[in-house]
Protein backbone atom coordinates (compact mmCIF):
# COMPACT_ATOMS: atom_id res chain seq x y z
CA UNK A 1 0.00 0.00 0.00
CA UNK A 2 1.27 3.49 -0.83
CA UNK A 3 2.31 5.68 2.05
CA UNK A 4 1.37 9.23 1.13
CA UNK A 5 2.74 10.69 4.35
CA UNK A 6 5.37 13.35 3.65
CA UNK A 7 8.69 12.56 5.29
CA UNK A 8 8.65 15.72 7.41
CA UNK A 9 5.32 14.84 9.09
CA UNK A 10 5.65 13.02 12.42
CA UNK A 11 3.82 9.68 12.70
CA UNK A 12 2.33 10.38 16.15
CA UNK A 13 -0.89 12.34 15.88
CA UNK A 14 -1.05 12.15 12.08
CA UNK A 15 -4.05 9.79 11.80
CA UNK A 16 -7.66 10.05 12.87
CA UNK A 17 -8.77 7.26 15.22
CA UNK A 18 -11.33 4.67 14.07
CA UNK A 19 -14.21 6.26 15.96
CA UNK A 20 -13.52 9.67 14.37
CA UNK A 21 -13.43 8.02 10.91
CA UNK A 22 -16.67 6.10 11.55
CA UNK A 23 -18.49 9.18 12.89
CA UNK A 24 -17.27 11.28 9.93
CA UNK A 25 -18.46 8.85 7.24
CA UNK A 26 -21.72 7.79 8.93
CA UNK A 27 -22.77 11.40 9.51
CA UNK A 28 -21.70 12.38 5.95
CA UNK A 29 -23.83 9.56 4.48
CA UNK A 30 -26.85 10.36 6.68
CA UNK A 31 -26.65 14.10 5.90
CA UNK A 32 -26.68 13.39 2.14
CA UNK A 33 -29.63 10.99 2.53
CA UNK A 34 -31.50 13.45 4.78
CA UNK A 35 -31.00 16.29 2.28
CA UNK A 36 -32.32 14.17 -0.60
CA UNK A 37 -35.21 12.92 1.53
CA UNK A 38 -36.07 16.45 2.71
CA UNK A 39 -36.19 17.84 -0.83
CA UNK A 40 -38.17 14.84 -2.09
CA UNK A 41 -40.77 15.09 0.66
CA UNK A 42 -41.26 18.79 -0.11
CA UNK A 43 -42.15 17.73 -3.69
CA UNK A 44 -44.90 15.38 -2.46
CA UNK A 45 -45.76 17.36 0.69
CA UNK A 46 -49.48 17.67 -0.09
CA UNK A 47 -50.10 14.03 -1.03
CA UNK A 48 -51.09 11.22 1.38
CA UNK A 49 -47.89 9.38 0.42
CA UNK A 50 -45.77 12.05 2.16
CA UNK A 51 -46.53 11.03 5.77
CA UNK A 52 -44.11 8.07 6.11
CA UNK A 53 -41.32 10.15 4.56
CA UNK A 54 -41.87 12.88 7.15
CA UNK A 55 -41.78 10.27 9.94
CA UNK A 56 -38.49 8.78 8.66
CA UNK A 57 -37.01 12.27 8.13
CA UNK A 58 -37.83 13.42 11.67
CA UNK A 59 -36.65 10.15 13.23
CA UNK A 60 -33.34 9.88 11.35
CA UNK A 61 -32.83 13.62 11.98
CA UNK A 62 -32.90 12.95 15.74
CA UNK A 63 -30.31 10.19 15.24
CA UNK A 64 -28.11 12.56 13.19
CA UNK A 65 -28.28 15.15 15.98
CA UNK A 66 -27.26 12.50 18.54
CA UNK A 67 -24.35 11.46 16.29
CA UNK A 68 -23.16 15.06 15.92
CA UNK A 69 -23.26 15.56 19.71
CA UNK A 70 -21.35 12.30 20.18
CA UNK A 71 -18.84 13.42 17.53
CA UNK A 72 -18.26 16.77 19.28
CA UNK A 73 -17.85 15.00 22.63
CA UNK A 74 -15.39 12.52 21.07
CA UNK A 75 -13.44 15.35 19.38
CA UNK A 76 -13.13 17.22 22.69
CA UNK A 77 -11.46 14.15 24.24
CA UNK A 78 -9.26 12.94 21.37
CA UNK A 79 -6.62 15.16 19.79
CA UNK A 80 -7.38 16.12 16.20
CA UNK A 81 -4.41 15.58 13.83
CA UNK A 82 -2.71 18.79 12.76
CA UNK A 83 -2.60 19.98 9.16
CA UNK A 84 0.88 20.12 7.57
CA UNK A 85 2.77 23.17 8.86
CA UNK A 86 3.94 24.01 5.33
CA UNK A 87 0.35 24.95 4.37
CA UNK A 88 -0.09 28.72 3.85
CA UNK A 89 -1.66 30.46 6.86
CA UNK A 90 -4.74 31.56 4.88
CA UNK A 91 -5.48 27.96 3.88
CA UNK A 92 -5.17 26.78 7.50
CA UNK A 93 -7.54 29.57 8.56
CA UNK A 94 -9.99 28.79 5.73
CA UNK A 95 -9.99 25.05 6.60
CA UNK A 96 -10.70 25.89 10.27
CA UNK A 97 -13.51 28.31 9.35
CA UNK A 98 -15.17 25.75 7.08
CA UNK A 99 -14.93 23.08 9.80
CA UNK A 100 -16.46 25.38 12.43
CA UNK A 101 -19.21 26.29 9.93
CA UNK A 102 -19.89 22.61 9.22
CA UNK A 103 -20.20 21.75 12.92
CA UNK A 104 -22.48 24.75 13.53
CA UNK A 105 -24.68 23.79 10.57
CA UNK A 106 -24.80 20.14 11.64
CA UNK A 107 -26.01 21.28 15.07
CA UNK A 108 -28.37 24.17 14.28
CA UNK A 109 -29.96 22.55 11.19
CA UNK A 110 -31.50 19.58 13.05
CA UNK A 111 -32.31 21.83 16.04
CA UNK A 112 -34.31 24.15 13.75
CA UNK A 113 -36.09 21.07 12.31
CA UNK A 114 -36.92 19.89 15.83
CA UNK A 115 -38.14 23.36 16.86
CA UNK A 116 -40.35 23.48 13.74
CA UNK A 117 -41.72 19.99 14.39
CA UNK A 118 -42.43 20.82 18.05
CA UNK A 119 -44.60 23.78 16.94
CA UNK A 120 -46.24 21.95 14.04
CA UNK A 121 -49.60 20.17 14.22
CA UNK A 122 -48.04 16.71 13.73
CA UNK A 123 -45.36 17.23 16.41
CA UNK A 124 -42.17 15.27 17.06
CA UNK A 125 -42.07 11.56 16.28
CA UNK A 126 -39.48 8.83 16.56
CA UNK A 127 -40.45 6.06 14.14
CA UNK A 128 -43.73 4.64 15.58
CA UNK A 129 -43.71 6.83 18.72
CA UNK A 130 -45.11 10.34 19.17
CA UNK A 131 -42.84 12.22 21.56
CA UNK A 132 -44.43 14.34 24.33
CA UNK A 133 -45.77 17.71 23.16
CA UNK A 134 -43.44 20.45 24.38
CA UNK A 135 -45.41 23.39 22.94
CA UNK A 136 -48.83 24.19 21.56
CA UNK A 137 -49.04 24.09 17.74
CA UNK A 138 -48.21 27.48 16.23
CA UNK A 139 -48.25 27.53 12.44
CA UNK A 140 -46.35 30.80 11.93
CA UNK A 141 -43.60 29.91 14.40
CA UNK A 142 -43.27 26.42 12.87
CA UNK A 143 -42.93 27.96 9.39
CA UNK A 144 -40.23 30.38 10.64
CA UNK A 145 -38.19 27.47 12.04
CA UNK A 146 -38.70 25.49 8.83
CA UNK A 147 -37.53 28.49 6.76
CA UNK A 148 -34.33 28.59 8.87
CA UNK A 149 -34.06 24.79 8.48
CA UNK A 150 -34.38 25.02 4.68
CA UNK A 151 -31.91 27.93 4.40
CA UNK A 152 -29.30 26.14 6.55
CA UNK A 153 -29.44 23.17 4.18
CA UNK A 154 -28.11 25.47 1.40
CA UNK A 155 -25.36 26.77 3.68
CA UNK A 156 -24.47 23.16 4.54
CA UNK A 157 -24.39 22.22 0.83
CA UNK A 158 -22.07 25.19 0.13
CA UNK A 159 -19.72 24.34 3.02
CA UNK A 160 -19.63 20.66 2.05
CA UNK A 161 -18.67 21.64 -1.53
CA UNK A 162 -15.78 23.83 -0.25
CA UNK A 163 -14.76 21.04 2.17
CA UNK A 164 -14.68 18.45 -0.66
CA UNK A 165 -12.80 20.84 -2.97
CA UNK A 166 -10.16 21.28 -0.22
CA UNK A 167 -9.91 17.50 0.28
CA UNK A 168 -9.43 16.96 -3.48
CA UNK A 169 -6.75 19.67 -3.57
CA UNK A 170 -4.85 17.77 -0.86
CA UNK A 171 -5.25 14.53 -2.85
CA UNK A 172 -4.36 15.69 -6.38
CA UNK A 173 -2.38 18.95 -6.07
CA UNK A 174 -0.63 19.00 -2.68
CA UNK A 175 -0.33 15.17 -2.41
CA UNK A 176 0.49 15.64 1.28
CA UNK A 177 -1.39 12.65 2.79
CA UNK A 178 -4.15 14.77 4.37
CA UNK A 179 -6.83 13.23 2.12
CA UNK A 180 -5.71 9.66 2.78
CA UNK A 181 -5.88 9.98 6.57
CA UNK A 182 -9.69 10.37 6.33
CA UNK A 183 -9.99 7.25 4.14
CA UNK A 184 -10.63 4.11 6.24
CA UNK A 185 -7.95 1.42 5.88
CA UNK A 186 -5.32 3.76 4.36
CA UNK A 187 -3.17 4.22 7.48
C1 LIG B 1 -30.05 16.28 10.47
C2 LIG B 1 -30.01 16.80 9.33
C3 LIG B 1 -31.20 17.24 8.52
C4 LIG B 1 -31.14 17.54 7.19
C5 LIG B 1 -29.90 17.49 6.29
C6 LIG B 1 -32.47 17.96 6.80
C7 LIG B 1 -32.82 18.35 5.51
C8 LIG B 1 -34.06 18.85 5.14
C9 LIG B 1 -34.40 19.37 3.84
C10 LIG B 1 -33.45 19.45 2.63
C11 LIG B 1 -35.69 19.78 3.86
C12 LIG B 1 -36.48 20.47 2.73
C13 LIG B 1 -36.36 21.98 2.97
C14 LIG B 1 -37.01 22.79 1.87
O1 LIG B 1 -36.74 22.52 0.70
O2 LIG B 1 -37.74 23.74 2.23
C15 LIG B 1 -36.21 19.48 5.19
C16 LIG B 1 -37.51 19.72 5.62
C17 LIG B 1 -38.03 19.32 6.84
N1 LIG B 1 -37.33 18.79 7.91
FE1 LIG B 1 -35.34 18.33 7.90
N2 LIG B 1 -33.32 17.87 7.88
C18 LIG B 1 -32.59 17.43 8.96
C19 LIG B 1 -33.07 17.22 10.26
C20 LIG B 1 -34.40 17.32 10.66
C21 LIG B 1 -34.92 17.05 11.99
C22 LIG B 1 -34.07 16.61 13.19
C23 LIG B 1 -36.25 17.27 11.95
C24 LIG B 1 -37.28 17.12 13.05
C25 LIG B 1 -37.19 16.21 13.98
C26 LIG B 1 -36.60 17.69 10.61
C27 LIG B 1 -37.88 18.01 10.18
C28 LIG B 1 -38.20 18.52 8.94
C29 LIG B 1 -39.54 18.87 8.52
C30 LIG B 1 -40.83 18.69 9.34
C31 LIG B 1 -39.43 19.40 7.22
C32 LIG B 1 -40.57 19.96 6.36
C33 LIG B 1 -40.58 21.47 6.54
C34 LIG B 1 -41.78 22.11 5.90
O3 LIG B 1 -42.86 21.53 5.98
O4 LIG B 1 -41.62 23.23 5.36
N3 LIG B 1 -35.45 17.72 9.86
N4 LIG B 1 -35.20 18.94 5.95
From TrEMBL:
Names of required cofactors: heme b
Subcellular location: Cell membrane
Membrane topology summary: Multi-pass membrane protein
Limits of the Cytochrome b561 bacterial/Ni-hydrogenase domain: 15-185
InterPro entries: Cyt_b561_bac/Ni-Hgenase (IPR011577), Cytochrome_b561_oxidase (IPR052168), Di-haem_cyt_TM (IPR016174)
Keyword terms, alphabetized: Cell membrane, Electron transport, Heme, Iron, Membrane, Metal-binding, Transmembrane, Transmembrane helix, Transport
Chief location bin: membrane
Annotated transmembrane regions: 21-42, 54-73, 94-118, 148-168
Annotated family: Belongs to the cytochrome b561 family.
Name of the protein: Cytochrome b
UniProt source species: Pseudoduganella danionis
Amino acid sequence: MNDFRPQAVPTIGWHYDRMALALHWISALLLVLMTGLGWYMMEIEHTPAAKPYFIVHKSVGLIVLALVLWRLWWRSRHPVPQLPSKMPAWQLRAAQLVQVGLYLCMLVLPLAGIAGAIHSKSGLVFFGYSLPRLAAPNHDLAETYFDIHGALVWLLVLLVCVHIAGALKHRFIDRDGVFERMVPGRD
